[in-house]
Amino acid sequence: xxxxxxxxxxxxxxxxxxxxxxxxxxxxxxxxxxxxxxxxxxxxxxxxxxxxxxxxxxxxxxxxxxxxxxxxxxxxxxxxxxxxxxxxxxxxxxxxxxxxxxxxxxxxxxxxxxxxxxxxxxxxxxxxxxx
Length: 131
Fold this sequence. Notes:
Layout: H1 2-12, H2 35-42, H3 58-63, E1 67-69, H4 72-77, E2 84-86, H5 87-91, H6 103-130
Parallel strand pairs: 1-2
Helix pairs in contact: 1-6, 2-6
């Protein structure tokens, strides 16, 4: 959901200088996005048809400008890998994985991610262009 939401916000803000990729620490490569994730993104008019889970690699981290983990425990797992932060460092809250929960949890996760993406766009991505 994070990738789809941030890409939508980047398009909305007409940002051309930033790309986004979502990767998992324990990604189920080859699987599809969960039905609940697709459903709650669809409620906002965001398509997730082209999304496929990817495994995070050191090469990806090394080539990134910013790596944002959903939780501080994920950040802790990657602390020796480079420029890694987490949503809690940026916004004051972790975003737990809703996998396997009911649709209301997915909506709450989507909304928390959306707020975090707004913060990242305003406080990092737009400022990056100014440098």
